[in-house]
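Handout, page 2. Input:
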Amino acid sequence: MTTFLHKGDLPADALAGAEAVAIDSETMGLRLGRDPLCVVQLSDGKGDAHVVQLDRATYDCPNLKRLLTDPAVTKLFHFGRFDIAMFWLHLGVVTAPVYCTKIASKLARTYTDRHGLKDVTRELIGVDLSKAQQSSDWGQAKLSDDQVAYAASDVLHLHALRARLDEMLVREDRDGLARACFEFLPHRAVLDVRGWEDIDIFAHA
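Output:
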């Protein structure tokens, strides 16, 4: 496995030809509109990862934006709602098409309420992820080796997770429902950014 660290943008030839790319992001916090987007990490599922430390002054990253909006590439997330919202807010793009392993887990693994990436990865593919760097300073000028390794670990297993979850969704006859949720997810993220983050627009009240 090799992890590549890039400053500002993804190289134009990185991840070329991939049909699905796992993506995650690191921010200075979890509040939309307050906390900036700092890092985006990506993997095509073949064992390598690309970690992009963004230029927060400009967010000038045309290659990354092109990938996020490429209709031929499925973007894999775990809790994609937050990442997609951050990309719309800071990069000005609506990410699509997408697949979210957290949504898939909630639809397929109804026997548990443990749908965090660490729990799902450990159960379904036997990998124990470290979360030691989850709350570190992602806005610093130079990322530590531990931060880069942590960022990479969050995307290296999403392809394998999708494969296992797809099997479970088909078995439970919920694969069509999952696809509908994935199609709506970018719109849900835009609603978050535009002020409906804590409002269930489908509720009667």
